[in-house]
Structures are given as C-alpha cells and as structure tokens.
Specification:
Length: 160
C-alpha cells in the first residue's frame, strides 16, 4: 500500500490526518485569494474614508464674492485676480453671469484680490486673511478706468 497517502496494509482507507491535509491543501489557494481580496477591500475602504474625512477634519478655505460695476450692478464674467499678500502665485478666476465668484482650496494666508471687467477695474483689496476651514465673502467694486465705458453711462439714470 501507499504510505504517502496515509494508507497502510492494515487500513484500506486513508487516515483522517491525510484527508484533512489533502482538503486543506486544495483550499489554500482559495483561502489566499479570500485573504487578498479582504486586504484590498479593507485598504480601499480606509483610503476612501481617509480622503472623505480629510476635508471635514481640515476644512476648506474659500474666498467668495461679488463684483459690482460703477453703476452698482453685478458685472457678469468679470476677471478676479488673486495672489498671496507676499506676491506669490498669482491666479485668476472669472465671475459667473451674475457677478459671483468663488476661489476654493486656498491655503490659510493673507490674499490680495482685484477685479476687472468691461474696461474698468477695482482697487486691490489687500491682506484679506482667510483662516483654515473658513469661507470669507467680499465685494469688489469696479471704479477706475481711463474712460468710463458706454455700458456704464447708459445704465445710470438721469436725475431730473
């Protein structure tokens, strides 16, 4: 008889140890796949949870506002330029059709902001301090131009 399978001359059937070992050996690759799948699933869950918890824990720093023209009406699609107060990393965004703008994902810092549109621009709003997790709202008024554009002259009422 074959002793490697747990069979002896006195026992025609394999021993219990041999049967369990043969079953376990067949299940090892399946078990490895299950453990690997669970490990990957757990890692993915922790990664997603960490990414989702990040903004809540740290908060987001946002600067929002409205751009008004010399006629005190919103300026659609005005350009809003911003940079850190140290003059680093200048950027620009555009207001929407109603003059509203949003600058998101800022680092906590002091910022200088200016708007322009239709040939007119605002003064620099300097040292706007935005803290971590804070949303700050500002209004930028367009007041300077070499010539006042006709678009703003038409919009003013004649006081008579």
């Amino acid at each position: 008889m074959d002793k490697s399978l747990g069979m002896t001359a006195t026992s025609p059937r394999p021993s219990l140890f041999c049967v369990l070992s043969a079953k376990s050996i067949g299940e090892v690759p399946k078990m490895k796949r299950i453990v690997l799948f669970l490990t990957i699933a757990l890692f993915a869950l922790l990664t997603v949870r960490g990414a989702a918890a990040g903004p809540h824990k740290n908060g987001t720093t946002t600067l929002t506002g409205l751009v008004l023209g010399p006629d005190d009406r919103p300026v659609p699609y005005a350009a809003v330029t911003y940079q850190s107060s140290a003059g680093n990393a200048p950027h620009a965004v555009h207001a929407d059709a109603h003059g509203h703008f949003t600058i998101a994902k800022l680092r906590a810092d002091n910022y200088d902001v200016r708007a322009s549109g239709e040939g007119v621009f605002s003064e620099w709003e300097k040292n706007i301090y935005v803290r971590k997790g804070q949303t700050k709202n500002i209004t930028l008024r367009l007041i300077y131009a070499k010539e006042v554009p006709k678009a703003y002259v038409k919009g003013k009422r004649n006081p008579q």
